[in-house]
Amino acid sequence: MPKKPIINRFFLNKKPISGLFFILTMVISPDGLGGEKNTLTLSEALMKTLKQHPELPAYQALVRSARSQIEQAEVGTRPELSVQVEDALGSGDFQGRKRSQTTLDISWLLEKKLIERRIAVVEQDERRAIVAQRIRLLDVLATTKALYLEMLRLQERKAVAMDALKAAQSIREVVRERHRLAAAPQVDLARANAAVRRQELELDRWQSRMDRIRETLAAQWGAPGRADFGIDGTLRIAAPEVDSPNYGELVDTSPYVKTLLVERAAIEKRIGLVKEEARNRIRLTAGVRRHDFENDYSARLGFSIPLGSEHRNDSRVAALRLEEEAYRIKENAKKLEMKSRIRTLTEQYQVAYQQQSALESEVIPALERAVGDARDAYRKGIYGYQDWWSVQKDWDESRMALIEARYEGQSARAELERITGSSIR
Predict the structure, then answer these.
(1) Angle at 85 between CA 81 and CA 91, to 5 degrees
(2) Alpha carbon distances (Å) from 412 to 31, 142, 257, 289, 344
(3) Does residue 35 or residue 173 have the better pLDDT?
(4) What string of H, E and C letters represents the secondary structure of the chain?
(5) What are phi and psi of 107, to 5 degrees?
(6) pLDDT-derived band of residue 93, with 50, 70 and 90 as boundaries?
(7) Mean pLDDT across the chain, nearest whole number?
């Protein structure tokens, strides 16, 4: 069964946001939930982003603005009060106010259906603001996870580089000892020294890149100048596979598809409003008239209705229908695009897992044994320095390849979660 989309759980409301799927399901490792002081887990980084990202309050303001527009749409046309004085200040019998007639009228428009249509339109505008907010929230949190994954990738590559530096130093000591005994040429010692220096430079390169990514990650919660934290987690892919058909079904519930559905619904509401605006609405009038000469009063009742066809907005309706059709075409195109993207990401995830399995169980253990054999063979004079160092490099490169396979798998998984708006187990 497909996982239930959980995008609805993290929409801004009056209660604390506690159901973010990124926070509950995108934590990379089970033991990444309790890092040491000054060390961030993925869930903590995502929560900091959610609370402190400098752009998110703007979307909250847009949602509140849309809600205010609903209140405004409920306000109808104000009743009109009119006062008329007739047959006064004239000549002859109409001098002064003896024969004047004073009329006090109030009139109001019957527009209940029109107001309902207006409310429906602005309510749809609110839904559009909500979907836009959710999409932006997905993108912001996905960016945080991508940066966090990159930090983990660099951290693990740095660890391999540190091991490679130690190995290069160890090899240099063995070469130096053999050179002292005249069992190794000077060129081997020179190459061993160069290998150590290259590994030092490689280590510095990974550290520099980590510092840059850490600064960018801290900017996600508005603190780029305080990037003095570490991270806690592992890139290892825990799930054996991602079920592509199930995630294909989630295309319809994706917020990136839903935004087009909301646009179509908004146009439908606008069509209803345009049609209602073309209708002839009745204006009722009620009042009282005073006859000064007779010293009497009389009531007044009446109504007015505009003349003209109720089809005068047909051209606007036709234009909106075409706009609605354009969004329907875009929706179908987006679904096809997402299905293709999901299939590609699923394959990327599965290939990454297969590579992880092969590297962990076959390649790396075999090369680790080969490194020990090459060291022993060098000490016995069977292998030269280049043979030993070549095996050592193959082992280091395989460990780097394992990191890249895991990183690609985790990145594919994160992108699947972003575009479907759902958790992936």
Answers:
(1) 165
(2) 22, 11, 20, 79, 9
(3) 173
(4) CCCCCCHHHHCCCCCCCCCCHHHHHCCCCHHHHCCCCCEECHHHHHHHHHHHCCCHHHHHHHHHHHHHHHHHHCCCCCCEEEEEEECCCCCHHHCCCCCCEEEEEEEEECCHHHHHHHHHHHHHHHHHHHHHHHHHHHHHHHHHHHHHHHHHHHHHHHHHHHHHHHHHHHHHHHHHHHHHCCCCCHHHHHHHHHHHHHHHHHHHHHHHHHHHHHHHHHHCCCCCCCCCCEECCCCCCCCCCCCHHHHHHHHHHCHHHHHHHHHHHHHHHHHHHHHHHHCCCCEEEEEEEEECCCCEEEEEEEEECCCCCCCCCHHHHHHHHHHHHHHHHHHHHHHHHHHHHHHHHHHHHHHHHHHHHHHHHHHHHHHHHHHHHHHHHHHCCCCCHHHHHHHHHHHHHHHHHHHHHHHHHHHHHHHHHHHHCCCCC
(5) -130, 150
(6) low
(7) 83
Pairing of the two strands 80-86 and 101-109: antiparallel
> Does the pLDDT at position 26 exceed 60?
no
Mean pLDDT of 351-361: 93
User: What's at 124, amino acid-wise?
Assistant: Q
> What's the distance, CA 333 to chain centroid?
20
